[in-house]
User: Fold diguanylate cyclase from Methylophaga marina.
Amino acid sequence: MVILAFFWLALLLRSRPAGRVTRLLAFGLCAIVFSWSMDFMDEFIRMPSTLIWHNWLESMPIPIALILLSIGIYHWHQEEIAISAQMVKRERYFREHRLFDKLMPVGGGAYLKKQLKLSLAESKKNQQPLALIAIDLDDFNVINRLYGIKEGDHILQLVCQLLLLNLRDKDLICRLAGDRFVILLHDTDEAEAKQLSQDLQHAVASFAYRTQESQQRVYLTATTAITMAKRDDSDSLIKRLNQLLSQRKQTAAPVI
Ligand SMILES: Nc1nc2c(ncn2[C@@H]2O[C@H](COP(=O)(O)OP(=O)(O)OP(=O)(O)O)[C@@H](O)[C@H]2O)c(=O)[nH]1
Assistant:
């Protein structure tokens, strides 16, 4: 039990930034470690039953720990509400850090599929239109080749932030793969989706990046495709969106 409590403490200190919540939880866990250690030592060292202070040392830390942990968890709850507000446009229905992208703070392909299943069910239940936009950077391999993968990674992260800035709170963006993002547009008709996809294309075209090493200007363009959810399942919907995007890639006119 003592080892378990030490393990919780180590996880807490390694994963959380310093601050009030961490302090309260850490002191609470320390009190538990102390109390359980005293209890554990009893197995090896026999104390005379007249030693009242020893019993106190063993039992008193637990109520103190519970009070500290309760206050800590309450403030943690407040903190989580604030963090959830910042995660709008990046998560909906559920949080699953293992399905989040490694490079940028949005869900990956698996997260998209799970979200899409839930969104399809919701749009059917509420009889609301559900639109999808795919946005893919043009010739991104050239950026990697000219400026290197590190610079390419940085550009992808900034493009993701740029797209987030241009979305509405009810939208959800995920990185499907590489330089391709998919946006779920809840309760959105085709005309609105078209407008939003043009806005995103223009935002990417207006973005000018200066490379960190050679200070060169890099300009980007992106191709988009839109589809409305009909009677498809999530897999066929993503497949159709990818096909539409490939067609658009072959015929796309440059963004003005
Ligand atoms: N820096 C960086 N590059 C990536 C990442 N994921 C994929 N890529 C690169 O993105 C490029 C995507 O290539 P393609 O799918 O051919 O796309 P493209 O070069 O943009 O060409 P089109 O889509 O046809 O315009 C490849 O060169 C990948 O190596 C990543 O996480 N970081």
Remarks:
- The chain has a mean pLDDT of 90.
- The radius of gyration is 26 Å.
